[in-house]
């Protein structure tokens, strides 16, 4: 089963790498390169609301059902994008993509949590992400070929790749789930209990809305939309003083207050049950990851390729290669980190190392991201920040899972993914704000003569075809914008270091070490209904109430 999961991981990273390289050119074709940040923000907000829902859905119905739904959305979205004749259709496909990607993204770590004990989990998470290394350069080369021939196949081929690679995993999950039910080893969960089946259709819909906290999810997404979109679109709405901008921001603040009240007072099944956890590690850990992800999305995922292609006259493929120093480090280093965590049984020191790099990396990006710097300087700064992310993400993901009861592992993974999704929204919003609000003034400062600002920022090819003096002015403007982002990134990196200080360390303990304790607690009351498939090596963790079971993954020893 683990090999099938790796196959899906490879397909997902292939898609992300290929589409990442395709996006600047395709948005330029649709004359929409300057507003692509809006779409990225919208998608990140949708993923924020969808990931907890998928997590709960997988607990209620089963991993197989949730994975199947997400893969169907994934494939349909790329069919729509491949057929898009305008940017609006492309946006529609991307919205459906959010429904598919959110499920596949959150369910992978959940399955790994089902399959592994806490000591080995970091190694397995690193292995799950390792197929990325295959795609870092091959996918960029393939994307360049698609751009040179027919860019639509850049989207269309993803449908085939996802269908072929996900089929073995989905069939395996369904087979194990069906076999467990036939042998009466997988008891019917609370979510699909007999009383639920006897409800009316309206009753089932109401029950589902309560279980996934639909109201809370809508308020969460609405608040993010109303707060973040004005930061990107303020100039288009008449500036920060316009009634539209002010009204939207005020509505966003009101929505956040409603969300907090709903989750605290009224939600029967809140999106994130923070009050049920004694440890504050999930809160501080997710905050650290959140801040690192803000830097990553702000500095790399939005306009960095456009910046490189314009200021250094690079092809999409070569620009992607310069950026890949981050990815190579982030993929390879966790294997070493996972092994040393297994040997030392510690996780918090790695977070502190990563938080230190989170200040150093963005600090080096400020001089590195200049049109006059050497390409190697860019790569070095990317590698250092990649190390920061590697030292932080995997140890924190393992640490927060070990800090909560086993029945809440899927929920805490969803919290982790929600944190990164919100960070993506905020990171791309900051980048979009600088690009759309600050860049016009920088053009006025540096670009001589009459120029067409909209066409320059919408199309890379138009910017490259400018007269030499105007082109040099555009390069200086882009340099200043990137320098401003770098300064913001250093400040956020410092905040991430401060947020890592309150984390409480403990030894990671193999679940077998506390086997007798676990058995004793099983006899005391209800426990996690697990079915282990020996042939496949996977644990189907499917229910649910563990009031008396202690976490078998931590001890109270402070490190």
Measured by DSSP, the beta-strand proportion falls in under 5%
Beginning-to-end CA distance, first to last residue:
35 Å
Overall domain count? 2
**Strand element count:** 2
Spans of at least 5 consecutive residues whose pLDDT stays below 50 are 512-559
Using only C-alpha atoms, the radius of gyration works out to 24 Å
Order the strands across the largest sheet as they lie in space: 1-2
What are the secondary-structure elements, in order, as H or E? HHHHHHHHHHHHHHHHHHHHHHEE
* Anisotropy-based shape: globular
Domain Major facilitator superfamily (MFS) profile: 1-504
InterPro entries: MFS, MFS_dom, MFS_trans_sf
GO molecular function: transmembrane transporter activity
Subcellular location: Membrane
What does it look like?
- The protein has 2 domains: 2-186 and 272-513, MFS general substrate transporter like domains (Growth Hormone, Chain: A); 190-271.
- The two termini are 35 Å apart.
- β1 (530-533) and β2 (538-541) form a beta hairpin.
- The protein is globular, with a radius of gyration of 24 Å.
- It has helices at residues 2-29, 36-60, 63-82, 87-115, 118-129, 132-148, 152-182, 194-197, 201-211, 214-233, 243-266, 281-299, 304-311, 316-323, 325-344, 348-368, 375-402, 409-446, 453-458, 460-464, 468-500, 515-524; strands spanning 530-533, 538-541.
- It is mainly alpha-helical.
- Strands 1-2 form a two-stranded antiparallel ribbon.
């Amino acid at each position: 089963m683990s090999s099938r999961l790796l196959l899906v991981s490879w397909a997902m990273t292939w898609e992300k790498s290929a589409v990442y390289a395709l996006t600047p050119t395709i948005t330029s074709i649709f004359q929409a390169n300057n507003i692509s940040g809006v779409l990225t923000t919208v998608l990140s907000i949708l993923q924020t609301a969808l990931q907890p829902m998928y997590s709960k859905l997988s607990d209620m119905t089963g991993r197989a059902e949730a994975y199947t739904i997400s893969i169907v959305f994934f494939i349909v979205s790329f069919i729509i994008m491949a057929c898009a004749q305008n940017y609006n259709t492309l946006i529609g496909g991307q919205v459906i993509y959010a429904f598919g990607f959110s499920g596949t993204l959150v369910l992978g770590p959940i399955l790994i949590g089902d399959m592994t004990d806490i000591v080995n989990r970091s190694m397995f998470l690193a292995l799950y992400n390792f197929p990325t290394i295959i795609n870092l350069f091959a996918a960029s080369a393939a994307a360049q070929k698609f751009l040179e021939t027919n860019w639509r196949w850049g989207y269309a081929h993803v449908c085939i790749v996802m269908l072929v690679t996900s089929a073995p995993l989905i069939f395996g999950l369904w087979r194990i789930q069906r076999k467990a039910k036939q042998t009466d080893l997988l008891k019917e969960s609370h979510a699909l209990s007999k009383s639920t089946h006897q409800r009316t259709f309206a009753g089932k819909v109401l029950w589902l809305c309560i279980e996934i906290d639909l109201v809370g999810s809508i308020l969460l997404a609405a608040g993010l939309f109303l707060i973040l979109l004005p930061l990107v679109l303020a100039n288009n709405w008449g500036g920060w003083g316009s009634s539209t901008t002010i009204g939207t921001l005020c509505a966003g603040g009101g929505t956040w207050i409603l969300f907090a009240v709903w989750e605290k007072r009224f939600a029967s099944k809140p999106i994130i049950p923070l009050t049920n956890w004694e440890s504050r590690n999930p809160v501080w850990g997710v905050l650290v990851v959140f801040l690192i992800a803000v830097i990553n999305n702000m500095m790399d995922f939005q306009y960095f390729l456009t910046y490189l292609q314009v200021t250094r006259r690079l092809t999409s493929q070569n620009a992607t290669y310069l950026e890949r120093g981050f990815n190579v480090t982030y993929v390879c280093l966790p294997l070493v980190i996972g092994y040393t965590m297994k040997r030392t049984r510690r996780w918090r020191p790695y977070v502190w190392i990563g938080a230190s790099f989170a200040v150093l990396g963005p600090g080096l990006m400020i001089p590195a991201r200049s049109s006059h710097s050497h390409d190697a300087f860019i790569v070095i700064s990317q590698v250092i920040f990649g190390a920061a992310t590697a030292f932080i993400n995997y140890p924190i993901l393992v640490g927060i899972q070990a800090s909560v009861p086993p029945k809440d592992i899927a929920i805490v993974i969803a919290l982790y993914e929600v944190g990164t999704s919100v960070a993506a929204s905020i990171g791309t919003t900051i980048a979009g704000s600088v690009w759309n609000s600050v860049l016009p003034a920088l053009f006025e400062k540096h670009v001589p003569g009459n120029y067409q600002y909209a066409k320059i920022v919408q199309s890379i090819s138009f910017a490259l075809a400018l007269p030499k003096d105007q082109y040099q002015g555009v390069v200086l403007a882009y340099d200043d914008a990137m320098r401003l982002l770098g300064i913001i990134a250093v400040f956020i990196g410092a905040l991430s270091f401060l947020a890592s200080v309150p984390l409480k360390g403990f030894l990671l303990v193999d679940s077998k070490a506390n086997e007798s304790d676990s058995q004793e607690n099983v006899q005391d009351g209800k426990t996690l209904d697990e079915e282990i498939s020996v042939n496949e090596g996977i644990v189907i963790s499917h229910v649910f109430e563990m009031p008396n079971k202690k976490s078998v993954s931590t001890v109270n020893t402070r490190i």
